[in-house]
Amino acid sequence: MENTATKKSGARINSRYRSRLLFYICLVTLPSIQFLICYVYVNINSFILAFQSYTAKTNALGFDVTFAGLTNFQRAWAVATERLDRIKLSLIWAAIKVGVGITLALVFSFYLYKKYPMSGLFKTVLFMPQILSPMIFSLLFKYIAVDV
Questions:
Q1: Which residues are CB-contacts of 52 (< 8 A; sequence separation ≥ 6)?
Q2: pLDDT of residue 3
Q3: 55 CB-near residues (< 8 Å, 6+ apart)
Q4: Residue-wise burial string across 91-119, b where 16 or more C-beta atoms lie within 10 A, e elsewhere
Q5: pLDDT surpassing 70 at residue 10
Q6: Does the pLDDT at position 41 exceed 70?
Q7: What end-to-end distance do the CA atoms of the chain give, in Å?
Q8: How many whole angstroms separate alpha carbon 128 and alpha carbon 62?
Q9: How much is the pTM?
Q10: 99-129, pLDDT tens digit by residue?
Q11: CA–CA dist 4, 11 (Å, integer)
Q12: Which residues contact 127 (CB under 8 A, 6 or more apart)?
């Protein structure tokens, strides 16, 4: 009697183990495939494309792909050094935007946290775009799809 009871419980455990293993494999497979395609493949392909050159075919459709070596990097460096003033202005503008943006975000966050006067108005004004967009979208859907 003991032998059959242990066989049944062993089969139940083995079946449970297999079903959990299958569930885990199904759970991990899709994100793994997405990681391999969207991260590994894209980065390897981008690295390969950085060393290729394309020329248009004259008598047919398409492009001829050739190995460019470091000429793409030399061209990019030449364009970057030629337009240093634009790059400098872009970096200054980005630093100002980040500095002002972070400072204002911290000030407003602190103001809302401390519940100073008119903090409710600031909450309403700040969160209004996130409230209005779904409302407008749902009303449009209602008028377009439901009232037909």
A1: 65, 66, 67, 68, 72
A2: 53
A3: 63, 64, 66
A4: eeeeeeeeeeeeeeeeeeeeeeeeeeeee
A5: no
A6: yes
A7: 70
A8: 49
A9: 0.47
A10: 999 999 898 889 888 988 988 888 888 888 8
A11: 10
A12: none
pLDDT above 90 for 95 = yes
Token pair 């009697």 is at which residue?
1
- What are the distances in angstroms from CA 22 to CA 28, 30, 34, 72? 10, 13, 19, 48
Sequence-separated (6 or more) residues with CB below 8 Å from residue 53: 65, 66, 67, 68, 71, 72
Q: Are 32 and 48 in contact (CB under 8 A)?
A: no
Cα distances (angstroms) measured from residue 123 to each of 19, 101, 115, 127:
49, 17, 10, 6
